[in-house]
Give the backbone structure.
Amino acid sequence: GSLRNDVLDLPGMARRLGIEEHVTFTGFIPDEDLPPLYRAADLFCYPSLWEGFGLTPAEAMASGIPVVAFRCTAVPEVVLHGRTGLLVRPGDVSALAEAISELLGDEEKRRRMGEAGRAHVSENFRWDLAAQRTEAVYQRALGERL
């Protein structure tokens, strides 16, 4: 079938691929229920090509989970290649699969990257820090107008 039909029928696609026993389709999950699900994972795969900011990779990293993603949009600002996860060329699903296999085969690397990811998020993606940075932009803009 077409990609559009497959996206609309993901359970059917999983059945056709013979992976339905390995895939769970949860539907909507409330935000407060997400942290334990992230923590139960070995890694977080984020195959998006169009996100403006990688909020879900940041959430996974805050839960101590390494991320595998395409190197595009703002994702490299969130996921640090080789430190908090692995980034691959956009659209290269073979490289994405290889990166997933690499991390699944190395528990110590996953642990190290998970710890580094948690630290990276707590140091760089906080509301107080965002407010300070926003205020600094306004101060510079006002200073340039005076």
